[in-house]
Amino acid sequence: MKKVIDKVLEKYPAKAFKNRKEHIVVKTGENEKPIIQANVRTIPGIITNRGCCYAGCKGVVMGPIKDMLHIVHGPIGCAYYAWGTRRNKAKLEEGGQNFIEYCFSTDMQESDIVFGGVNKLKQAIKEAVEIFHPKAIGIYATCPVGLIGDDINAVAQEARKEYGIDVLAFSCEGYKGVSQSAGHHIANNIILENVIGKGTKEHKKYSIGILGEYNIGGDAWEIERVLNKIGYNVVATLSGDATYESIENAHSADINLVQCHRSINYIAEMIETKYGTPWIKANFIGVTGMVETLRNLAKCFDDPYLYEKTEEVIKEELDEIQGEIDYYKEKLKGKTACLFVGGSRAHHYQILLKDLGVKSILAGYEFGHRDDYEGREVIPTIKKDADSKNIPEITVTMDKDKYRIIIPEDKYEILKQQVPLGDYTGMIKDMEEGSIVVDDLNHHETEMFIKLLNPDMFFSGIKDKYVVQKMGVLSKQLHSYDYTGPYAGFRGALVFAREVAAGVYTPAWRYVTPPWKKEPMLEGTLVGGDK
Ligand code: CFM
Ligand code: HCA
């Protein structure tokens, strides 16, 4: 594997070589816990797959809140970028509102950039209130807004007074921070300070919160179906198919399940500090992940009814899918995969692939931090990056009225030995020896690694899907699920298995000539030959 990496880095100029070398590691016997460089800016000139701060704030964390009206303050392209493509689905609830299919923007023009866009923003809010009567409004600043200095906070404050609804301003200009993860931070801070804790709904038995689950392709619905069947009451999902009111009540959960650690780990921590709600790392992707998560959750409540019901539901769900899953496993056994996605799926989907007998030989995140790769224990050793000054830090203290002791300290310590309470061990730990880990993989490296590793499948996003596919390798989007889904939970695992098997065995590959048949094979290529 070392040779493969040398080959990939070979033609980089010295500065790029030094930089990229630190972002690529191999897990070996001697290097069980490699240190990887992460969450630093991409070198200009390199074609990265990363998104921006605005994408992380508006597109990822806030966008899925369905009855909030999200106004993108900026030129229309930014609004269009975050319009529907992420496939965060939402259903209208009885008596509720759902703006998920809409795209609201101030559509700034050159004259607004020169003379300021504040008046246009005020007008947009006025129209939004008059036409749609939303529960709450979010204003999202894109790059030019920060550059010209429109004061969106002042506009939001004035609008709150004038219309008597929550109007939240997010200074999430695309250039802030390294990538999407800066935007997650900005959104989460504002949600914690202004929304969570305001609700007054009565606490119900077996209440849980799901954090970092965005209902892509209907994942949250599938997860909730199973959790409800066991008897849990999901008070809030942040933020897939969420209502503003459910988020106001998120503090009433007894346990929070953290699915996407990257986008939400600090909010889970802050909810615990402020309201006493403990959190565990969850993984609803893959049968093994789902079963383990359900059992861990039952242990947190330590209630005989839940233990029993959990096993009953697991059995029922497995009975439903096992036969078909085994069929696809037979088809996929021994295949190899590369994964390159955002900040958590490159890990979660390895668990599902393993269930199907597929080996993950390379994986990486676009913008994961070192703890997403190496585990939470490295957080105190991570140097603050130069960009973090762009993102306001907030300090949270205990809310004396709403704080609850849910798991007493002595029990907490015992439980911590059994379940990932307040902990996440990172992606590398679950990878096999000899596998390659690459942070912020770029297009040059994608092509080189494909030529050298010749994987059977490559999981990433729209920016490289067709490049990979034209190389004769099945490419599936783990962001949008190639317009299908859900992939989460038991039934989702089956949908995924069916699609991957169909992709691998499609006769279409006979019509594509892979590069190693057109060009001489690169020296160091591991496996060649037919697909
Ligand atoms: Fe979390 Fe996400 Fe992801 Fe993410 Fe994203 Fe996404 Fe993703 Mo695309 S919140 S880090 S910023 S799991 S939008 S739903 S698919 S890159 S791996
Ligand atoms: C984003 C959203 C994205 C992009 C997906 C892709 C998503 O980062 O702005 O590149 O295919 O999941 O929709 O991550």
Automatic annotation (TrEMBL):
EC number(s) reported in the record: 1.18.6.1
Pfam families: Oxidored_nitro (PF00148)
An example Gene Ontology molecular-function term: iron-sulfur cluster binding
Cofactor: [8Fe-7S] cluster; [7Fe-Mo-9S-C-homocitryl] cluster
Coiled coil region boundaries: none
GO CC, any one term: molybdenum-iron nitrogenase complex
Keywords on record: ATP-binding, Iron, Iron-sulfur, Metal-binding, Molybdenum, Nitrogen fixation, Nucleotide-binding, Oxidoreductase
Catalytic reaction(s) noted: N2 + 8 reduced [2Fe-2S]-[ferredoxin] + 16 ATP + 16 H2O = H2 + 8 oxidized [2Fe-2S]-[ferredoxin] + 2 NH4(+) + 16 ADP + 16 phosphate + 6 H(+)
Nitrogenase/oxidoreductase component domain location: 52-502
Family annotation (InterPro entries): Nase/OxRdtase_comp1, Nase_comp1_asu, Nase_comp1_CS, Nase_Mo-Fe_asu
First-tier enzyme category under EC: oxidoreductase
Record carries keyword Oxidoreductase: yes
PANTHER family in the record: NITROGENASE MOLYBDENUM-IRON PROTEIN ALPHA CHAIN (PTHR43457)
Similarity comment: Belongs to the NifD/NifK/NifE/NifN family.
Quaternary structure and partners: Tetramer of two alpha and two beta chains. Forms complex with the iron protein (nitrogenase component 2).
Function (record text): This molybdenum-iron protein is part of the nitrogenase complex that catalyzes the key enzymatic reactions in nitrogen fixation.
Protein name: Nitrogenase protein alpha chain
Organism: Clostridium thailandense
